[in-house]
Structure formats: C-alpha cells, structure tokens
Predict the 3D structure of the following.
Amino acid sequence: MAKKNKAAANEIKLPKSRTSLIHNIKKYWPYYLMVLPGVIFFLVFKYIPMLGSVIAFQDYSVFKGIFDSTWVGLKHFKALLTYPDFRRIFSNTLILGLCKTVLIFPIPVILSLMLNEVRNLKLKKAIQTAVYIPYFLSWVIVGGLIFDIFGVGGLFNNIRNFFGLNTLLAMQKESWFRPIYVVSSIWKDAGWGTVVYLAAISGIDLSLYESAAIDGASRLKRMRYITFPLLVPTILTLFLLSIGSFLELGFEQVFNLLTPMTYSVGDVFDTYVYRVGIQQAQYSFTTAVGLFQSTIGLVLVVTFNKLANKFSDDGGLW
C-alpha cells in the first residue's frame, strides 16, 4: 500500500501538460533543435530590445545608462506631436503605407493565381526564377539600378528622346517618387510573396478541380470559385501580419530612393528616425517615435483581426 501511495505521489509531481511537453521534447528533439535558432533570434533581436523601450520616457544618456537617466514621462511624445514637420512626415508615411497595402499587397496573390494556371512546367519554373531573383538583391543595388535607368543617359530618357521628348530627371521630381516606390516594391518583392500562396494552392484537394471540370467549369471559373475562396484564409493571415507594420515602410528602400528634391513627399518616420536618432543621437525621442508606430500597428492588427473573425470563420490570427 505504501508503495502504491509513493508511486501515486511521483505521478502527480508534474502537471500533465508539462509532462507531455517534456515527452514531446524527448521524442521530437531534432525538430526542437531546428526551431532553436529562430527562437534565439526572436529573443535576442525582438523581445530583449523591447526592454529598452523605457528610454522613450527618459532623457537617456549613454553615460548614465537606463537606470540613472532622468525620467521625463510623455515629454518626447508631446515633442513628436508638436514637431513642425510631424504632419508632413506622418502624411508621407500614411500615403506610402496605403500604397503598400492597396497596390502592392494584392500583386503576389494575382501573380500566384496566374502562375498556378501555367501548365508548361519549364515555362512555369522559368517565370518563377525570373520573378524570385530580384528579392535577393539589396535595396542599395536596386536603388542604383533605378537611378541609372532614370538618369540622363538611362533607358527611360533614351526612350523619351527617341520619341522626341525632352530629358526628364524623374528621380528629382516629387510627382515621380511614389510611383517609382510602388513599381520598385512590386518588382523586387512580389515574386517572393507568391511562395506562400503557391504553397497554399498546392494543398487544395485536386478532386475539387476534377469535379468542377466534369461539371463543365472553365479554368477561369475554377480559379474564381475554388482556388481564390480557399486561398482567402491565407491572404487574410498575411494581410494581418503585414498591417502591423503599416507605418514601417522599410528604411533601406526609401532611403536609397530619396533625393534632396523629393524629401517633401518621401521623408517618412524611418528616414526621420535615422537622421535624428543616429546622426543627432536623440535616442529617447526616436524610441518614442518607434513606440508611436508600434502602437498604431497594434491597433490596426487588433481591429482588422476582429473584422476578419466577424466576416470569416478562419481568417483571424486569434
């Protein structure tokens, strides 16, 4: 009897969930080992740096450190909202964010639907390779190519001169910055964005297409009534993940496309933080800017997630 009681006591030492977790780790340790670098990456570069957000509420000094710097509350947030160029920077970021969401985000979806309909495997692989390659180029290289294309002796002006038009310095024109931003984003990133959608499409049951074909549905109707509806949950998930960085447009792209003549339409929070935070060493103020962006991103994610859950059974993140 005593042995049975001792065995029972040993059995209840660990909660069931914890026991199953340890069992899973022992059983599937190679998979946990594969995940470990990703976990370490997010801990080191995402979660631990969040502790440094407290300097947004301080007059941070690198000599005093976080613990000895003076606390100033919401001083830097008030300075941001009353900053003379805040409205211009915020409007530029908002407009480019809308371009990114409305014009750029749907392109990988359309491209993946079109690639899925290509039946010639060699042609399909060639197209995929052609649209994937730009993703692996840095924005420094892409920015240099764009400046060469739109330069005085570039392809753009050579074509204009061929048709009798005057040379146009497009990279120095405010009206050209946003279209170039959109086109360059699509050219560089759209191909890589199709990877997830094509993977989701490959998981669709082929019997659905076969049944639709027997019923006389054309390829266009099969795309419209089978592929796209089953792709919607993936689209909503990626949309929610991207909407969180609505005001974070990517410093590299904007910085490498900006010129002094296009600052009025291209200067965004990311480039502003670089000038003020890195070049002028105003770390507390730029951290406040980052928290402002993150707060808006959080509000957008929560809002759109609720909308997704309302209109779709499996479209939300939680």
